[in-house]
């Protein structure tokens, strides 16, 4: 699996692939495949978050829990779905907040966030795979240790990253982040169940850009074509 990783990420995460938990995870995924179980995303897309946002280019991190489990949705980026698939409710709410937060933002007709990943936003799920139509089915199999290590390495080796932690699950990852070197912006999750409890009106996108500009860095172009 390590060969599929962007070189900068491979440099910091390669030791993880030799650890027992990753060997166990690989065996589990092979067992899923051999049993005919449908797993999302497809193998080539599992590490898309890392490969679209190289380690040395990460400016922002948006954390999700696990991939979408519906047909054709997941492609390795948190909150993102492939073009041609209905935009999920949480992402619709993200777009709603963007329209009020970023004056020039216009909601696109799709939910593919690859443009954000290419802008330097690491769209990272805690678990990188899931069984089709079984949410959370690959939690506790080892992915969390791997993605926690990714967050920890960003915290240790980089400075000035903005971490957007939406909801309780993401906010539990704050312990991995050195707040003397990075900024954490917390709010409710954009899910329809919680968006009105503090996500709407939190202005995470303009706040992120203000932080980047204050540090002399290029702000994020949030518009998606």
CATH-defined topology: Uracil-DNA Glycosylase, subunit E
Order of strands, main sheet, comes to: 3-2-5-6
Largest sheet: 4 strands, parallel
CATH architecture: 3-Layer(aba) Sandwich
Fraction of residues in β-strands: 5-15%
Q: How many domain regions?
A: 1
Q: What general outline do the C-alpha atoms trace?
A: globular
Counting DSSP E segments of at least 2 residues, the number of strands comes to: 6
Could you say which structural class the secondary elements and strand pairing correspond to?
Answer: alpha/beta
Task: Give a description of the structure.
The chain has 225 residues and is α/β, with parallel strands linked by helices. It has one domain (7-215): Uracil-DNA glycosylase-like domain (Uracil-DNA Glycosylase, subunit E), CATH 3.40.470. It is 34% helix and 11% strand. The protein has 8 helices and 6 strands; from the N terminus they run H-H-E-H-E-H-H-E-E-H-E-H-E-H. The strands form 2 sheets. The protein has a 4-stranded parallel sheet with strand order 3-2-5-6. Helix 7 links the parallel strand 5 (162-166) and strand 6 (183-187). The radius of gyration is 17 Å and the shape is globular. It starts with 6 loop residues before the first helix and ends in an 11-residue tail after the last helix. The model has no long low-confidence stretch (mean pLDDT 96).
């Amino acid at each position: 699996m390590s060969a599929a990783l962007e070189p900068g990420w491979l440099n910091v995460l390669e030791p993880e692939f030799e650890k027992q938990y990753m060997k166990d995870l690989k065996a589990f995924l092979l067992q899923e495949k051999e049993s005919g179980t449908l797993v999302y995303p497809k193998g080539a897309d599992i590490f898309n978050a890392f490969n679209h946002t190289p380690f040395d280019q990460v400016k922002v991190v948006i954390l999700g829990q696990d991939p979408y489990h519906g047909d054709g949705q997941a492609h390795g980026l948190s909150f993102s779905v492939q073009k041609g698939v209905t935009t999920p409710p949480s992402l619709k709410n993200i777009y709603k907040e963007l329209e009020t937060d970023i004056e020039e933002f216009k909601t696109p007709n799709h939910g593919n966030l690859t443009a954000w990943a290419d802008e330097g936003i690491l769209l990272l799920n805690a678990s990188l795979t899931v069984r089709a139509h079984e949410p959370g089915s690959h939690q506790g199999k080892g992915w969390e240790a791997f993605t926690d290590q990714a967050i920890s390495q960003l915290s240790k080796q980089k400075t000035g990253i903005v971490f957007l932690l939406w909801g309780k699950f993401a906010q539990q990852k704050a312990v991995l982040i050195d707040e003397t070197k990075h900024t954490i912006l917390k709010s409710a999750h954009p899910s329809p169940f919680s968006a009105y409890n503090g996500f709407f009106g939190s202005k995470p996108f303009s706040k992120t850009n203000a932080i980047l500009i204050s540090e002399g860095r290029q702000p994020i172009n949030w518009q998606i074509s």
